[in-house]
């Protein structure tokens, strides 16, 4: 397969209303399934959802403690969100990348549960191919993520799918070039980058970072951003895909809910790498300084 149709879903999660119980989640997942169905109508094979796609942006505030009700929003891999997305993937025979607030149950009775920002990769039969836990966790005003998430402990895996090898990096990871480099060296052809970026003055920074990473590694990178006006932030969408030469495959989308399509010609990877031999001419022996504390 040299041609691969992919889609990014721009979705605005519904707010958690007082007394709403799980209804906000049910409604958001239904909307996500509808948008995925629209992507499938375009013969898409891989669908990526944005960071924490099923929840409002709760990390805008620092929690009051481990008993803060926001930790109750976290789910295990057999929770309602991943269970629903597994069903949708199987129904359509597609791969879905679904980023959630993950609760990882303690392995022994003396330990606390652990919490991560995690992207699950779901296969065409509804099986869990694997997951990526966000490694680089920011602590910035309105992105108080370190107060909720532990740094990922699974490295930078590459996932084998029926449509090729893919990687995932979550939001802030984009600005750390080591992430994409490791995935490219391990065979990823496409890297999906679910994000939660607000305030559209940052658009150009994201475009430049993704463009440089795609070109330096000779891979496609599909940045998929959330949308919607929340209490403190306006998430602007603007999802886009870069080619292996760092040029746009699909230009930034608007700020509304919808489906962003990107049809990739995977043969471009070899063509670009034969001209721009960045991976071939690496000098690992000279990079000792990268791993010093």
Kindly describe this structure:
By secondary structure, the chain is of the alpha/beta class. The protein has one domain (3-291): Carbon-nitrogen hydrolase (Nitrilase/N-carbamoyl-D-aminoacid amidohydrolase, 4-Layer Sandwich). Helices cover 22% and strands 26% of the residues. The chain has five helices and 14 strands. A six-stranded mixed beta sheet has the order 5-4-3-2-1-14. A hairpin with a 5-residue loop joins β4 (114-122) and β5. The chain starts with a strand and ends in an 18-residue tail after the last helix. The model has no long low-confidence stretch (mean pLDDT 94).
Entry summary:
The chain has 293 residues and is of the alpha/beta class. It contains 5 helices and 14 strands.
Q: Which band does the percent of strand residues land in?
A: 25-35%
Radius of gyration: 18 Å
Structural class: alpha/beta
Give start-end ranges of low-pLDDT stretches: none
Query: For this structure, what is the CATH class?
Result: Alpha Beta
Specify the biggest β-sheet.
6 strands, mixed
Strand order of the largest sheet: 5-4-3-2-1-14
Q: Give the total of beta strands.
A: 14
The second-level CATH architecture is 4-Layer Sandwich
**Count of individual domains:** 1
Identify the overall geometry.
Answer: globular
